[in-house]
C-alpha cells in the first residue's frame, strides 16, 4: 500500500507553493472535483476523501502563524492532528521543533506528508490511525487545522485537545469560521485572509483565525494581533 499511495500522490498532485505559505511546497491537485470523483471510483476505499491534496484555509493560517512565531514550537515535541498534506507539520519542523509527528486516518495522506516533507527538506514522522480516543503521546504542542467541520468530529476533537492541554500541551488551531468550532473554549491569537480553491469553498478568500485553547471555558479574548 505505501508504494501505491506514493505513486497515487505523484500521479494526481503537482508540487507547488501553498498560497498563503509560499515558503512551503506541497503536492496539490489542480482540479479538486476530478480527484474527489476519482477516489470515489476506480480508487474507492474506506478512507476519507483526498483532503491531503488541498491547502485548506485553517492549515494555511496555522502554518503561517507557526512560521511567523517559531517560539511556539522551537525545541518542542509537536503533534499535527489530522495532518492532511502535512503543511502544518512541515511549518513546525521548519520553525525548529525538536520532533514533529503528523497523524491522519488516511494512508494516502501519510504518503503525501512524506513526499511533502522530503520536498521541503525537513523530517516529519507520520502515523496512520484515529487517535482521538487516546492522548497526545507526550507532545508539548498540539496543532490542528480545519478540524471542526462537523459536529461529531468537533466533539471528539475537543475532548482530545482538552486531554492534551490537561497533560501540559499547548494547543493551537486554525479555523475559517466553521460552524462547529466551540469558540468559548478558545482565545484568538490572530487572523488572516487566506486564498483558497473556489471549487472547494465557493469563495477565493477565507477569513481564518488562529486560536489557542483557553485554560477555562469563556476565557476567549480578541487576540494580540490581526493580519490580512
Overview of this protein structure:
The longest helix has 16 residues, at 151-166. Helix 1 packs across helix 5 (107-119) and helix 3 runs parallel beside helix 4 (87-94). It is built from 7 helices and 9 strands. Strands 5-4-3-6-7-9-8 form a 7-stranded mixed β-sheet, with helices on both faces. Strands 1-2 form a two-stranded antiparallel sheet. The protein has helices at 2-12, 32-39, 57-68, 87-94, 107-119, 151-166, 198-201, and strands at residues 14-17, 25-28, 77-81, 99-104, 125-128, 141-145, 170-175, 186-195, 205-213. It is an alpha/beta fold and 228 residues long. It has a single domain (2-213), classed as Rossmann fold (3-Layer(aba) Sandwich).
Keyword list:
228 residues, 9 strands, disordered C terminus, Rossmann fold
Q: From N to C, what is the helix and strand string?
A: HEEHHEHEHEEHEEHE
The structural domain count equals 1
CATH topology: Rossmann fold
Content of β-strand: 15-25%
What is the count of DSSP helices, taking H or I runs of 4+ residues? 7
**Alpha carbon gyration radius:** 16 Å
By CATH, the architecture is named 3-Layer(aba) Sandwich
Distance between the termini: 41 Å
What is the mean pLDDT?
89
The count of β-strands is: 9
Uncertain runs: 41-45, 224-228
Approximately how much helix is present in the residues?
25-40%
Shape: globular
Amino acid at each position: 500500500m505505501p508504494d501505491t499511495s506514493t505513486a497515487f500522490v505523484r500521479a494526481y498532485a503537482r508540487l507547488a507553493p501553498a498560497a498563503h505559505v509560499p515558503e512551503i511546497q506541497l503536492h496539490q491537485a489542480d482540479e479538486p472535483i476530478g480527484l474527489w470523483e476519482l477516489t470515489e471510483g476506480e480508487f474507492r476505499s474506506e478512507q476519507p476523501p483526498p483532503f491531503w491534496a488541498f491547502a485548506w484555509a485553517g492549515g494555511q493560517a496555522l502554518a503561517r502563524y507557526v512560521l511567523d512565531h517559531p517560539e511556539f514550537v522551537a525545541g518542542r515535541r509537536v503533534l499535527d492532528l489530522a495532518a492532511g498534506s502535512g503543511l502544518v507539520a512541515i511549518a513546525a519542523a521548519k520553525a525548529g521543533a525538536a520532533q514533529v509527528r503528523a497523524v491522519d486516518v488516511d494512508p494516502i495522506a501519510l504518503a503525501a506528508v512524506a513526499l511533502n516533507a522530503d520536498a521541503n527538506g525537513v523530517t516529519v514522522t507520520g502515523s496512520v490511525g484515529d487517535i482521538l480516543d487516546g492522548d497526545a503521546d507526550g507532545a508539548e504542542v498540539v496543532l490542528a487545522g480545519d478540524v471542526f467541520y462537523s459536529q461529531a468530529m468537533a466533539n471528539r476533537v475537543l475532548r482530545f485537545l482538552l486531554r492534551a492541554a490537561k497533560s501540559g500541551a499547548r494547543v493551537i488551531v486554525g479555523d475559517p469560521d466553521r460552524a462547529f468550532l466551540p469558540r468559548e473554549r478558545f482565545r484568538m491569537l490572530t487572523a488572516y485572509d487566506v486564498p483558497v480553491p473556489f471549487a472547494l469553498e465557493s469563495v477565493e478568500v477565507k477569513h481564518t483565525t488562529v486560536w489557542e485553547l483557553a485554560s477555562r471555558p469563556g476565557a476567549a479574548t480578541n487576540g494580540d494581533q490581526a493580519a490580512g
